[in-house]
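Example record

The entry below shows one chain as it appears in the dataset: sequence first, then structure tokens.
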Amino acid sequence: MSFAPPPHITELLKAIGRADARRIRRAGRQVRRMGRQLPQFDSIWLDALAQCGVITRWQAGEIAAGRGASLKVGPYAVTEPLADCLYARAFRARHIESGHEVRLIVDWRDGRAAQEAAARLRELVEAAAPLYTEDGILPIAAGQVEQDSTPPVCPVGRPDTCRPAGAVRLWIAADWAPGRSAADWLVAHGRMPAVAVEEIARTMVAELAQLETAGLCHGDIATSNLWLADDGRTLMPLPGVRGVLRPEEGYSLADLPPEAFDYLAPERVAQGTPPSMAADLYACGCVWWHLLCGRAPLGGGDSLAKLRAAHEADITDPRTLAPDTPTILAEALLACTRPEPHRRPKSAAELAGLLGSPTAQGGRALRRALRAAESPRLGWPSMRAPIVPKQPRRLVQSAAIGLALTAALLIAAWPIWRAVQEKKAESQAPSEIAQQTQTAAQSGDSPTSPGMPSPNAASKTPDRKVVPAAYLSESDETAVPSQRDANAHIAVTANARPTADLPMNDQVLDPAELQRRQPLTLRPGQLVTGANGARLQWTVPATGLRVTVDDAASQQPIVLEGIDFVWNQASATEAAMIVVECGNVRLENCTFTVQASATGMPTAVRWSHPPAQQADTLALPSGSIRFTNCVFQNVAAALECRAQGAVRVEFVSSLHLGPGPLVHSPQEPRAEDSINLVLQQVTLRGASALWQCRVESSAGLVSGRVLVRAERSVFAPTEGGTLVLLHGGGDPEPLLRNLTWEGEGALVTPGISVAMQRRSEGAPEPLDDSGIPIAGLVLSEVEFAGPTGGGLANHRPLRWNAPLRTADAPGCDFERIPDLPKPQDPGR
């Protein structure tokens, strides 16, 4: 009988560079001993290969589960997963040809996002090349792997999760350094000695200063990503990778574990800004606080609570919990964790000047302190071993002689005892067999032979069978990908719509097809646009366009680009041109205009998340919607926001000509909700308000947080208009108390109130806005190129009397926004 692995396992071993003939022969002998006369099952081969060191036990589990094809990532073979990366999948891997070990980050992207992310990863490797030394864990290689949507053929286990055509597996690698993360160290030994934290702080700041000279920032400074190497080095692996894979963070992106947001700077949560050196310094302060005090500086039971805590950024003095913290370290920590970025140290070099540079003496003190804290018999900072009283030598010799005599007596008595036991068993065997046969006959079962165990033996004796290594990751919740991921994929696939309704590529539609496909169901990450790069002009029916997403829980945005939505219906009361039921949506270069006189006016976009059928769930969803280079004319509101939870609404280089508000919230945000309204280069002219919200709360109730951030924008509402219009008879105080306005370079024309309330059909009344924190909003006269009723060129600002940081005109970029369709153009 030939003892060779099955062909598909042999091919896989060749692919990952583990087809060593000598070790495979050794595994064959192991299979013969394990399987004996049984067939050569794949599970036995995988277990034998793992025992002989050909593959790891985790690799055996992946192969048994049908995920063997994913073990090869570019030129590397994945050997085991790592738990210290919280934003993507991390692995320990080995170069197939050279055997060089690396740390590997792997993530999935589709379509254009994959191309952009892959290009940025390669740029990151090139930028880090001049800084490469053996004392760091910098990116050394990056690439991408195309994934076929066809499941791999494997007779064992469940096939790998299918990916849509065009899906790309991105990877980036860095040198491997044996050690463990600071998070693991804290779990095992508690808080760190202050002398160790001080030296770690110097090393971290020195590494950031080197990155700063190359124009890079880290973006993922955390205790889980602070590596304590076995040779004493303190490292921060793979700088810049999280900023490429997740350039934005905030309430709408609460899809990571809670601990992934422990060190997020408040400006990144509130404004969604990309990683910066100021954010890195803030994260450093939080990490040092964690090392000193033994717990994260901010609390929170889930991801959304963590984001709220990070937004507030209430970091206390660590000396209240760690009195031994050096004064210099405490001052540096408090300076780094200031909520305002401009109040933190200007650079890592400046902070390094305050803390000092790492030294060889400090490195030795760090290693001594950690060794002392790791030893249960030694206390830090003292390294003196405890005094153990020595026993007299004469007593030790007597004890040794006694033990030797006892062992000799046992050895001599062993044959006699064994013979007695065997004779006793022979005398009892006939009666026991007869009794077992009689019992089996009474119960109706066939009698068992003397060499076979009884049917009830399994329940009376403990189960000592060994689970093969091939099945270990099936029951392990930390397996990558986990069994729960596979089950989730099966549920989605079973409920999926036909392929005709869910094409895998971008949607290129004409008006007739758009009219026919109601509702328009898309996959996450899809783009809807016109054919051949031309704009798609579509006359919206009275029912509007309903856009849904197959996977409502996905964070990948759908994109509608280059579409002119025209309303020519006679009635528009409570109507909307688009009704979007999606957690993440982008509208780019779109126009929304009402050309016919109608009873009332429609809303341009009505955003609902979660969908109506899921509104009664207990989950607290979050979502994001962005308008880029969009124009709104003669609409009741540009956006009617009915999304629940923490939402982010963003307008970039957009023009709103009213007459309704830019954003309308039909209900007041509840205590667990929050709204983040981001306005960049927005022109509002002829509208009744910037944000309109209905208030019905009673006095004393808590309202949700509302943050408005406006930059380089112009707000010129109608005469007697306002920025915030509250509609309803409720108490406005809870909402105004939680309203914050910030930004820079936003102009508002004179005569405009900050907040007003319309309690009935009468005229709105101004509200006291003295308690609203307002920053970056400037009162200024603005002269436009023409009256409000003309073309788009009339809304270009010509003159203003407020100082701005640049000479460019505030408001939308008229070179990028599209023109409105002409009234005489027929809708198609």
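Notes for this example: Residues 393-443 form the longest helix (51 residues). Residues 650 and 678 are 5 Å apart (CA to CA).
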